[in-house]
Amino acid sequence: QVQLVESGGGLVQAGGSLRLSCEASGRTFSTYTMAWFRQSPGKEREFVALIRGSGFSRTYANSVKGRFTISRDNAKNTVYLQMNSLTPEDTAVYYCAADEGAAITTASIYDYWGQGTQVTVSS
Questions:
Q1: For 55-86, what is each residue's pLDDT tens digit?
Q2: CA-to-CA distance for 30 and 78, rounded, in angstroms?
Q3: Using an 8 Å Cβ cutoff, are 36 and 114 in contact?
Q4: What are the DSSP calls for 66-104, one per residue?
């Protein structure tokens, strides 16, 4: 069982930056693919970024490529999402997710989810 706790959301102006963190419980954090998804009101949950257990393989959604960076610190059981050049379209609840299997961008594959953290970007 893995428990995930996100933090770092908030209100920021367009063009600004935020860093989200997700701390995981458990002793096998380094074996999990970690991902960030987001969901806006009335929309489906959307893939944002993922990182494999080693930290060397990362995948990004086209909408955030070049602006967001996912990273992890396995010693701290934590995954991060650095978000730069934010736009109002990035406004959503951001969720951290974990899966022991292959690195997949489909939300339904992920076994463990955090409670979400709100990110609001004002224009």
A1: 889 999 999 999 999 999 999 999 999 999 99
A2: 10
A3: no
A4: TTEEEEEETTTTEEEEEE-S--GGG-EEEEEEEESSS--
**Residue of 65, 45, 69, 38 lying closest to 55 (CA atoms):** 69
Six-digit token string for 101: 């299997």
pLDDT bucket at 106, cuts 50 / 70 / 90: very high
Report the distance separating Cα 93 and Cα 37, nearest Å.
Answer: 8
- Residue 59: alpha-carbon gap to chain centroid: 11
Q: What are the structure tokens assigned to 123, written together?
A: 């224009």
| Sign of the alpha-carbon torsion through 17, 61, 71, 112 | positive
pLDDT recorded at residue 42: 93
DSSP code at position 101: S
Instruction: List the structure tokens of 18.
Output: 């935020």
**Angle at CA of residue 50, ends 45 and 53, nearest 5°:** 140
**What are the CA-CA distances from residue 45 to residues 41, 92, 110, 111 (Å)?**
10, 10, 12, 15
User: What is the dihedral angle through the alpha carbons of 96, 101, 106, 108, rounded to the nearest 10 degrees?
Assistant: -80
